[in-house]
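Tutorial sheet, problem 5. The two components below are modelled jointly, 574 residues in total.
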Amino acid sequence: MTTTDYSPKPGAAPVGRMLLAQTAFETRMLLRNGEQLLLTVVIPTVLLVLFSAVDIVAVDGPGKRVDFLAPGLLALAVMSTAFTGQAIATGFERRYGVLKRLGASPLPRWALLTAKTGCVLVTEALQVALLTVIALALGWSPQGLATPLGALTVAALLVLGTAAFSGLGLLMAGTLKAEATLAAANLVFILLLLAGGVIVPLSKFPSAVQSALELLPIAALSDGLRSVLQTGAGVPWSDLGILGGWAVLGLAAAARFFRWE
Amino acid sequence: MHSEPAVQIAGLVKRYGTAFNNRVPAVDGLDLTVAHGAITAVLGPNGAGKTTTIETCEGYRRPDAGTVRVLGLDPVTQNAELRPRIGVMLQSGGVYAGARAVEMLRHTAKLHAHPLDVDALVERLGLGSCGRTTYRRLSGGQQQRLALAMAVVGRPELVFLDEPTAGLDPQARRATWELVRDLRRDGVTVIVTTHHMDEAEQLADHVAIVDRGKVIATGTPEELCRGGAEDALRFDGPPGLDLGPLLKELPEGATATETATGSYRVEATVDPQLLATVTGWCAASGILPERLAVQRRSLEDVFLDLTGRDLRS
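Model answer (structure tokens):
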């Protein structure tokens, strides 16, 4: 048996390598987790196929059913990964001392959070690709992407939505117990799925309720995506504004109240 | 080579809770100096303040009073500089529930510039058989060994091990001790908390006994165990021996008594000289001392003397 040399030779890996390693590792953990996949892949896909094929809810706006549903389910995909999935995973990482242990590793905290964001973005890219392919197969004809402005607007909506949901998810994960986060994040997911304009148009709600619901981040994201992709309208400034507001509030509150253990 | 100690703690106070409830100090004026390149055991009962002290050194807790220097750095304000140089094994957890053992170790290695060879470490700690098992399915002992491997894989100068052998079977405990000794051989400083006195006795070059948030005794295990009423030498012989001549040969302050018929007990500092004196007297008196036994003080006895309480209580 050879003896190992333990003589000290400390040092942090280059920060780029740490970032890449942490992002890849977190993504691998997420994709391995069955419940997470149910949330991020299976539920949006099933909803898209089911509601496109079956006339259960009356949809709004021009085009086919899938033209209304696809933008809403892209918004749901963002919420499922950036908010629900991230909140639950981070909550349990906090509970099991993973965040604490990483706090004694060479990985800086900002790099950990950047890696988490990277993991969310990679997952979202996979979700968007999958949902787009399925929606196109179902006859989706997205508008507004012919111009660079339209594509840029969609990207901005997705990024701001991710920032808003990440802030809220991390706020929950960093302040509540892991079990409470698990329950609350799933409850919020279902409530916002039903009342956030994802598959049920907000116009079906009483007008007083509707104007309150329009301020929800999920409503702003699905409405913004729909205004570009379904109707080909210009930049949805009010939706971008609402998402920006939630992003600032959520991230600031998370930065202020997040507890690492 | 090192002008200052690896760890220097002076007057550390750490309280938990808020101003509105009892701010009971977990650590209450603790002083500790840890030398480079040695194994230091922080020994004390549960709740003595061991973990709080270690976690303050690791930068997790901000002291309410006192100063802490680790490798010459302030663990809170110079945390980023300190972290690559230390290895940390928490009392529990620290691993993604869905991560496989070897995968987690490999990832930890990637965060360091010059990590150890992961495969060799896996083999060394016997983690090969459970390498593809996820953390939550590992046994308690396997989880402990993985956490130990993660603490050393980055080739740190200073390793903090918080109760590294809690819940291990005797074989795994010895494997852990062997690794810790190898670290010392190669010049790594190790700080280990434990409430097993035999672990401190077997492993440590220096022991700091902590109770109620203070260090109440420090020294090598030998220094701590030396002297005191508990040191004794016993033997059996014919009943009713005249111990007067023996007493004259013994060092001052020593006692020799027949504790039961034919059972003798000599209380003094037990060293080779004492043994020679007693056996020499036996030889001169034509007595064969039977069941001759040296009874040294253990750290458990030292702790009992110092606090009047049992170490495990």
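Marking note: Chain A touches chain B through 35 residues (CB under 8 Å). Full credit if you identified this.
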